[in-house]
Amino acid sequence: MQLNTRQILFRSASVLCTLCLVSSLSLFSYGQQTNDGKIGSHTTRVPGSMAPAARAVVEEAMGVVCMQAKLDPRSSQAIDDMQGRPSLPVNTPEARAGAARAQRLLPVAKELVITALRQLIAEYKVPTGPRFNARLQQGIARVGNVRTVRPDVASRDNASVFLSRPHTITFGTIFLAGLRSDEGMISVLAHELMHIADGDNDSLRVLMTAVGAKAMTLTGLDIRGQRSEELACDLIGAMAVREFVASTPGYESITRRLSRSVEHNCVQIDEGDEDHLSPRNTIRALLALHPVLVRELIYDREERSVPKL
């Protein structure tokens, strides 16, 4: 059927409006999207302020994390490996097990996020006047109201929160299956809960910006705008896992358990986009921001390597 110019313009406008509506429903997503606008892993970079010795220790800690990803039978699958998998039905055993783990850990993750959020605000000396405190309380209330983890085949290797479902975190079934430990799952739950705390009015923008600015100064990576928010959410995830590990001692090494918070970023194909650092640069920036985590990753490994007499 032939269309005249007016009909074509009308249909094009309708499609554009539909795309805008769909975009407005999605609030935030964990993970990188593959697209033609990808800017790669080596984005704008200037020399960071970290001393060479400190930078070397961060690189050593990265090596520890990614070695654990190879050795740990419950390590999280790397993001690029997840992206290469075929879609996974909701009722497969691994997707169901992941969904059950996420739902079980959701109450724990909510408490850990609130604690980590308060700690980060104090650490970054965010001005806490009446207006900010009111927004913070609203954000904490939003976190408390999250009730459900919803598995979704189409979301594949991503996790998202939607404005239309503010009480639900949507997990791709591949992601649910790829996060094979409590620590790995808590890190992603905490990431999404931090987005929820920020909300659609950017309640925590001043904190997100401060985290990005500090990471950019330390590493020289370009960490502004949405990248600042994504990195702050990742940092909250790592902090939540560290507190979870401290409060639930077990037979596994601290190094192994802490590594699970970020080891899904131990990719072979290291590419970022406009909203996210590349996965390996995400680890690099997180460790630069969290020297205590770096020490625990390295020194717990070294202590356990010494044979006991």
Structure characterization notes:
Helices cover 60% and strands 7% of the residues. The chain has helices at 5-25, 52-71, 79-83, 93-123, 130-144, 173-178, 182-198, 205-219, 226-247, 254-259, 279-289, 291-305; strands at 26-30, 148-152, 159-162, 165-172. It has a four-stranded mixed beta sheet with strand order 1-3-4-2.
Properties at a glance:
alpha+beta, four-stranded mixed beta sheet, 4 strands, disordered N terminus
Strand content: 5-15%
Q: Ends: how far apart?
A: 85 Å
Share of helical residues: 55-70%
* Sheet with the most strands, sense and barrel status: 4 strands, mixed
| H-E string | HEHHHHEEEHHHHHHH
Class derived from helix and strand content: alpha+beta
Mean pLDDT: 85
Strand order of the largest sheet: 1-3-4-2
Compute the gyration radius: what is it?
A: 20 Å
Please mark out the parts with pLDDT under 50 across 5 or more consecutive residues, or reply none. Answer: 1-26, 32-43, 302-309
The total count of strands amounts to 4
Q: Work out the helix count.
A: 12
Q: What form results from the Cα inertia axes?
A: globular
Mind sketching the topology for me?
Elements: H1 5-25, E1 26-30, H2 52-71, H3 79-83, H4 93-123, H5 130-144, E2 148-152, E3 159-162, E4 165-172, H6 173-178, H7 182-198, H8 205-219, H9 226-247, H10 254-259, H11 279-289, H12 291-305
Parallel strand pairs: 2-4
Antiparallel strand pairs: 1-3, 3-4
Helix pairs in contact: 2-11, 2-12, 4-7, 4-9, 5-7, 7-9, 8-9, 8-11, 9-11
